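New to this. Please check both lines:
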Amino acid sequence: MRTRNKLLIVLVVLGVLIGAFLVYVAVQPTYVVIEREVVIAAPPEVVYAQIEDLRHWDAWSPWAKLDPQMLQTFEGPQKGVGAIMKWSGDDKVGSGQMTIVKAEAPKSVVLELKFFKPWEGKAKSLFVIAATDEKRTTSRVVWGMNAERGFVEKLVNVLMDIDGMIGADYEKGLAGLKAVAEKSPATPVP
């Protein structure tokens, strides 16, 4: 009898702990927001030109470097609103597409992201660019992402440091963008 009671107590305690953990996961914020920023010694127009033309992303995107064999196709206009890049690569980059849904030269670019593999999902990505001096020779760039999360995504975020993982990629991308923009001519080529 005593062994049975002890086992029952252990199961009840385990059930309470699992229940508490699931409640903790459920009450996590519905939206995840990740942001990183960098100061670039280049005018906002030069930085903006690198972001609004999705064909330029290969030069600075951290994901292009993860899978050099990644297939990319482009649709719509070459740059600005409606420009689309679709990608398909190895397990590190998966497959999906991004579409520029809003662009305000030289201040901001908003992208809609759709992920197909290794998991399905949607997110919005935003670049905000602002001159840091009156002569407009230096720019502050913020790269952010927000996404709505269901229970499974909340669970993954509790178990893994998503902000750290995606944030690290954003930091690499911003460092690449900085290197490319600082080597570009002061006036972007149209």
Summary: The mean pLDDT is 89. Residues 16 and 120 are 32 Å apart (CA to CA).
